[in-house]
Every structure is written in C-alpha cells, then in structure tokens.
Amino acid sequence: MPFRPLGWMFSSDLAVDLGTANTLVYVRGEGIVLNEPSVVAISQPDHSLLAVGHAAKAMLGRAPGSIQVLRPLRHGVIADFDTTERMLQYFITTVRRRRSLVHPRIVLTVPSGITQVEKRAVRDTAQQAGAREVFLIEQAMAAAVGAGLPIQEPGGHMIVDIGGGTTEVAILSLAGIVYSKSVRIAGDEMNESIIQYVRKAYNLLIGERQAEDVKIALGSARPDGGESETWAVKGRDLIDGFPKTVAVSREEIRDALRDPVMAVVGAVQACLEQAPPELAADIADKGIVLTGGGALLTGLATLLHEETDLSIAISAEPLACVAHGAGKLLDHLDLLRRVAIGT
Q1: In CATH, what number is assigned to the domain containing residue 191?
Q2: Neighbours of 184 (CB within 10 A)
Q3: Could you tell me the pTM of the whole model?
C-alpha cells in the first residue's frame, strides 16, 4: 500500500461537475474517480431507485411503462430537484464508500447564467446529499483552471466550454470573470437538430442515443473532405410504423448541425465584442481555449479561427477539464473562496 499522510482517511473533499449529460466526481488526492451519465431510472409503482448512470442510460427509450428513465438536469440546471438529489446522493455515497466517514467539503460547478433560485437548489441538493460545506464555481472558471490557464495573472484569457446543456464563454483576468455569456445551446441541442433533420428528410424517428452516436461518428462544423462517408441510422418509419435503416452522410449531418454550431460561434463573437481593449489585446496574443465535449466536434476549432482570426487551442482533456479544475481548487482554499459565487 503506498504511503499517504496520516490525515488522508479524514479528507473526503469532492469536486462535482454536475453536467446535463455526464456527472464527474473528483476526490482530493485521487483525481476523477467517477464519470457517469446524468440519468436515473425509477420504478413507477413505489418510486424506488432502479439504476443510475450507465445502467440507467442503457434503458433510455427501452423501458416499459413501469420504469421512468429521467435526465434530471436540463440546460445545465436542475429540472427535477428530487431526482437530482437522489442521483447526487448515490454518486457521493458510491465515491465515499471505504474512504471516509467525514462529511465532505464539496465544490459544484454551475453555468454562469444560473439564477438565484437555481443556485439555492444546487446548494441545497449538495447539502441534502451530505456536504458539510458547499462552494459553487462557474463552469468557465473551473474549465480555465483545468486547462492550466494562469487565471490569477493580470492578463486576459478566453475560455469556451461546450458541454451537454450549455455553452459557457468567458473572459477572465485576476481570478475573476470580466465578461461571460451562457447560451443554452450545446451537445443536447446538436442531438435534437439531428433528430429533427432525420425526421424531416427520411420520415424516420430516432432517439437521443442514436442521434448522439451519429454526431460523434459524422458530426462536423465545416467541410473536411469526408462528405461521402455515411452512417447507418436505425429508427421507426413514421409512415408505416416499421423499423427502418437509412444511410446519412457527413454532409447531411453538417447541415443539420449548422444552426447550433453558428449559435456557439455567435456567442464567442458577442463575448469578444464586449472585451475591454487591454484584454482584447491579450486575447489577440493568446487566442481562445476550447473545453467540453463539444470542443471535439470535427472542424469547430478551424471554423472559430476563420470567424475570429484568432488562434484556437483545444484543452488536453476537454471532457474532464471542468472536473479537474474544480478539483484543483480544493488544494487552494484561499483561491477557492475567492472565486466561489454566493447565493
């Protein structure tokens, strides 16, 4: 067994990236120990918890009427308070098992556009799940820390975090957010655009999981030379009601994604237009950093470069960047208290 400081068993501090699509939990001293879909399956007769995370996601679109499969977070905020509380409690209990009996200090990431009511709901959920102290951190700030940006320096940095429910765009300097814009268009909206395109073009009804698979396989933000590539999409024919398979091309999916992609580009441009002159000069020198699952969309970085004429970099671990950043702040309590937002 590796040597650890005597007090390690009493340290149970956690950072939770409570995302619309996935929830990641970071344990201080260990790193990310849990990465599960933010999905819950509940038995309708007695409202008992049947499954959470990957097991629940596998039931999406496949469960009988006696089982309700829910995604309790929408657009980065809590849509179903009770179910979110039960999900968070499950994840925290899973992580803390065999680690510590001490109630943890918890850092939770939230979108910059969150309301006071939503802040209280998130804080209350964490407290009900067993936290002794709760800190709320804006996702853009956590993403910047996770990406390794020197946020405490007097220089402008721009971060774009494209998650499942929201896209967070922010300009940071001196450990503060100078300007931010949160738009509720991100991965989920891209999936919905694919669902609507396939429905309109082929009279075929497909589910969220199928749309996400197509997005990952064929999704792109601009032409990349692979337009002839196709993917077999399976669903239900809306005319005769039978199962059906159609082949969709990369070009079709790019067209389907155009509106949400340009909404992300528009949010970046709007943020740049609000940058103070000195910080705008810093951003011109340093460029923009992309994080979140949406950063992996083929051609998005190139499209943003073409639209802004700035250098665009994708963080090393875009899917885990927010969780890593929130986790790193647990080792710097002074900075954590400085950047935390109140209710």
Answers
A1: 3.90.640.10
A2: 17
A3: 0.90
